């Protein structure tokens, strides 16, 4: 046991060393883009702790700060998530991810991604408003998910191939379609369905949502490498950050959620519903990030329609 832990620790140190060296090397050639890496680390860590795709941060960053077009931003967000969410899914995998839900959800979601990429393509002019409205919907989904997670914390139910699995597959299919258009969506809808219908544990729902999003992001990345349009000089900087941030995401969620819950429930005057949300172990970080999602969506809609 000690030898295994020692080996894992040394492998982790080696990975950090290699990725840091790679980042320093490419920073010498593209110094302006070097800021993306620490941002990517933070985005991946939060995304993998909550199952909320990192596209919530990457899309506005690439669109408004770096001046990329909506289509380029979506392609780059999906490509970045392919690495970050996979790293996080591997970190969650041993104890939390439901294998049967991942198999069905990942397969249906992948079909949705392919349809949204090649068959039913969202026009470039509709990407920003769609992303903004979807952000508000995801905010409401997160609140429902955390509220349902109160009872699911004590549940021991596992995903079963029963009639409800048909609805789960349909949810994953639609989630994959939405993810192809906006680089977000399927992780939260998967987690909500598992909590609402199957009443699995909160952490299992989140981890499975992360894994399904990872599958869909990898499929989208493969599709867009064939279509072209990925801005590789940005992807070189996001990948080192999300690989490390994704691996840290699960630990971040476990460590910070109880602390945030105590801070919010003890110092903020909230109504009964909101107090219930932030008082749940494992929900503090998710609740905080839901606020970021809401603000993100509102600002994008204001920029699109008013500014």
UniProtKB/TrEMBL annotation:
Keyword Transferase attributed: no
Annotated membrane topology: Multi-pass membrane protein
One GO cellular component term: plasma membrane
Compartment list: Cell membrane; Membrane
Keywords: Cell membrane, Membrane, Transmembrane, Transmembrane helix
Pfam family of the protein (one): TauE
InterPro entries in the cross-refs: TM_pro_TauE-like, TSUP/Inactive_protease-like
Transmembrane segments: 12-32, 38-66, 101-124, 130-148, 168-196, 202-223, 230-250, 287-306
Top-level lineage group: Bacteria
Family: Belongs to the 4-toluene sulfonate uptake permease (TSUP) (TC 2.A.102) family.
Name of the protein described by the UniProt record: Probable membrane transporter protein
Organism lineage: Bacteria, Pseudomonadati, Pseudomonadota, Gammaproteobacteria, Alteromonadales
């Amino acid at each position: 046991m000690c030898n295994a832990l020692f080996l894992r620790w040394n492998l982790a140190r080696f990975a950090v060393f290699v990725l840091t060296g790679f980042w320093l090397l490419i920073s010498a050639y593209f110094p302006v883009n070097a800021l993306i890496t620490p941002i990517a680390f933070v985005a991946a860590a939060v995304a993998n702790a909550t199952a909320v795709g990192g596209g919530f941060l990457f899309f506005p960053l690439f669109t408004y700060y770096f001046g990329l077009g909506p289509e380029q931003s979506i392609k780059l967000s999906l490509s970045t998530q392919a690495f970050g969410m996979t790293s996080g899914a591997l970190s969650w995998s041993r104890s939390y991810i439901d294998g049967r839900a991942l198999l069905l959800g990942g397969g249906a979601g992948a079909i949705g991604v392919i349809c949204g990429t090649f068959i039913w393509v969202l026009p470039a002019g509709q990407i920003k408003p769609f992303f903004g409205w979807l952000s508000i919907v995801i905010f409401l989904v997160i609140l429902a998910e955390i509220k349902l997670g109160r009872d699911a914390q004590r549940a021991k139910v596992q995903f079963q191939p029963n009639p409800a699995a048909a609805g789960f597959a349909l949810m994953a299919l639609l989630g994959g379609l939405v993810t192809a258009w906006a680089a977000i969506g399927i992780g939260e809808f998967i987690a909500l369905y598992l909590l609402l219908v199957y009443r699995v544990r909160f952490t299992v729902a989140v981890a499975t949502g992360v894994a399904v999003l990872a599958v869909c992001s990898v499929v989208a990345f493969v599709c867009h490498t064939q279509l072209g349009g990925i801005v590789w000089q940005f992807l070189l900087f996001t990948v080192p950050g999300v690989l490390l941030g994704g691996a840290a995401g699960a630990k971040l969620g476990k460590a910070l959620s109880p602390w945030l819950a105590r801070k919010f429930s003890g110092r903020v005057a909230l109504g009964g519903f909101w107090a219930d949300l932030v008082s749940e172990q494992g929900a503090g970080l998710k609740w905080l990030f839901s606020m970021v999602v809401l603000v993100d969506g509102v600002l994008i809609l204001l920029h699109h329609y008013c500014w």
